[in-house]
Every structure is written in C-alpha cells, then in structure tokens.
C-alpha cells in the first residue's frame, strides 16, 4: 500500500477541552505519523476558503463561526493508506453514527463540533495540505 499524506485539523471544541494530546495519541497508535503541525487561530476568510465546497449548505455560516471560535491545530499525517485510515480513526461525521472507539464517538460534542477534520480523498488532501503548509514545513 502507498505511503500517503492527509490533512488533519483538531477543531476548537477539542482544543478548548485540552484534548489535543489524547486525539493525537489515537493517530499515533494506529501508525499515522505527525509530520507537520501548527496551532492557528483561523480568520473568517481562512475558514470560508477552507470550507468553500460547503458554501451553499445551510450549516456553512455556523460552521465557519465555529471553526473561528478558538484555536485549531492543523497537521499533516503520514502513513500507509493515510487518507482512509485517518477517516476510520476519526469516525462518522455525526458522532451519533460513529463507531465505538473512534475519535468522534469518544470526544465529539455534536455533528458540527465534531473534534476533527480529515481530508476525504488523496486529491483533496494535496489541496488542503497546500492550503496550510509549504513543502519545506513537512518533515517526514
Ligand atoms: P466530514 O468532516 O466528516 O468530512 P462534511 O460533510 O465534509 O463531513 O462536513 C464538514 C463539516 O461540516 C463537518 O465535519 C461538521 O463540522 C460540519 N457539518 C456537516 N454536516 C453538518 C450539519 O448537518 N450541521 C452542522 N454542521 C455540519
């Protein structure tokens, strides 16, 4: 299987509750390596740009406001099959539907405040990584 990179974001509901380390332990336990990491306060423009694909959705403005409500940790995870593996470790978007032992089942507060973001395809991972990191900032 190919070594891939994916973009992960630890969302404001999780940084607020001091869960950064607990969440990153889940990634590392499953073999995902954190090869770049930065704590950021997103601006409205940055959050809108990142979630532009959702701009017609009813929850867009609320999502943008939530993503700017506190610091986030943006990071690049690397490993075999990293995109799909990260989605598996995260669990379903809605924590009510997430499987036992996933980050969202164990930590998410709601379908919006669901603790983590993860790219959904290798193509989107490349775009999302480039949104936050220069190649030189990623040390594998
Ligand atoms: P994903 O994060 O699991 O890939 P997406 O459907 O791409 O899920 O949605 C992006 C983010 O938008 C979700 O992680 C969540 O924070 C928020 N979101 C998705 N659906 C809803 C909703 O129905 N109400 C409120 N927020 C939502």
TrEMBL record:
It catalyses: a 2'-deoxyribonucleoside 5'-diphosphate + ATP = a 2'-deoxyribonucleoside 5'-triphosphate + ADP; a ribonucleoside 5'-diphosphate + ATP = a ribonucleoside 5'-triphosphate + ADP. SMART domains: NDK. Major role in the synthesis of nucleoside triphosphates other than ATP. The ATP gamma phosphate is transferred to the NDP beta phosphate via a ping-pong mechanism, using a phosphorylated active-site intermediate. Belongs to the NDK family. This is Nucleoside diphosphate kinase. PROSITE patterns: NDPK, NDPK_LIKE. Its EC number is 2.7.4.6.
């Amino acid at each position: 299987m190919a070594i891939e990179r994916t973009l992960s974001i630890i969302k404001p509901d999780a940084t607020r509750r001091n869960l950064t380390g607990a969440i990153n332990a889940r990634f590392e336990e499953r073999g995902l390596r954190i090869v770049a990491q930065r704590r950021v306060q997103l601006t409205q423009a940055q959050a809108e740009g990142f979630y532009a694909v959702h701009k017609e959705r009813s929850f867009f403005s609320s999502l943008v406001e939530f993503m700017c409500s506190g610091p986030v940790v943006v990071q690049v995870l690397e490993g075999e099959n990293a995109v799909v593996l990260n989605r598996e470790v995260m669990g379903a978007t809605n924590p009510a539907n997430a499987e036992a032992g996933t980050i969202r089942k164990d930590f998410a507060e709601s379908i919006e405040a669901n603790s983590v973001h993860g790219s959904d395809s290798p193509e989107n991972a490349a775009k999302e990584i480039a949104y936050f990191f220069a190649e030189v900032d990623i040390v594998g």
